[in-house]
Amino acid sequence: MRKTIKTFLACLLVCATAGGCLSIPNSETVSPRYFRNKSQGGVREEMEQINFVKLRMDKPAEELLGPNDVLGIYIAGITGNPEDAPPIHNIGSDKDRPASGYPYMVRSDGTLSLPMLPEPIYVEGMTLIQAEEAIRAAYTLKREIVRTDANISVSLIKPRTYHVTVIREDVTSDDQRSNSQSGTGKGAAYMGGIARGTARTLELPAYRNDILEALSLTGGLPGLNAKNEVVILRKAYSDEFSNKDYMDKDGYAMSEVARRYNESGEINNLNSDLGVLRIPLRVAPNEEPPQLTSEDVTLYDGDVVYIQSREAEVFYTGGLLKGGVYPIPRDYDLDVMGAIATAGGTVGASAGATPSGTNGKVGSILPASRILVLREVNGRQYAIQIRQRELLRDPSQRILIEPNDVIIVEYTSAELWFNIFYNMINLRITPQDFK
Predict the structure, then answer these.
(1) Range of the domain at 380
(2) pLDDT digit string (tens) for 244-265?
(3) H-run or E-run covering 163
């Protein structure tokens, strides 16, 4: 045993002498004062949320009819026997309003084709009351088919809907969530290797076809692992989907977009003629909030609402910190002290502490106090050196962590040699053992 210990210590001394005690010499490091520090405030904490009500479309005082609206029309003696009561629809449904009459759909040109009328009635842009008056005039004044006091009623059985796809990379399905529980390590789970998000096809009724409605039906506002923006892709279907028959067939095109994303995890292979609208959800204090119109937030057939993941905004740890990948908070700033704590390390540990990630196998009386933050700026890597004592005393040393930073905690030369000597004493090794 004594011979093995002596061999181990000899190898340790040779490695420390030949390779140096520091991963990066002090001469190749820079001061944290060259970078944005905590006392100056960060970008994330200063940002303010926009008014989410602006993501809802302006609803008119009266809803107007349009193509694909299904109306309930009852004309005594024409669409039903005068003795029979008109059929009732939507009773007991929480989403639809009660309606009565026989179903007739407003055609794509905005007209209604009704029995015994030689020409259709144009109703697009009318209210239900105006449509009822137009139908009554067509049957009583223009053609005198029924009496002026005939029972005629018009109601809305089903409003027109718009087929929209919502792709969210911040929400996982139940299957993906169960699979993610088997992942090992915070880095593996966060970097998207297990769950990539979901895609859903919605049928949004008229006057509720807006961004806020689409988000509320698919999980709410973007989560903390999503970017602070909503991306709207207009006309998001490839040339093979541009056939009008496909678009009219139960939202076939949007269902196909959702299916492709769920299989591949990507939204490519779409038409290059793509209109993109980016709506930031948080803006800087000196930045004017987006001036959104009702048309901007209104969704139509073929639109895609895309919530992107922010999985690339991470920092890495190494050295005496346990190696890992950790997300940078979305809505507040994280300084180097908070990042070390997030990774499970300690700052200003007491004497006799054990370095993080060593599992207690190496004892030390002096904790590691040299902190390096490796940061790439304009293609060049900088090694920012921070001492723990300065970190505790001077807030300007607590630089803000940026995406792809690497935080390394290690001993200084003096700390390493002192701890080696301390371990030699604990093992009862004397200088005679090296002869």
Answers:
(1) 2-46+313-434
(2) 443 444 455 556 666 666 666 6
(3) strand 161-168
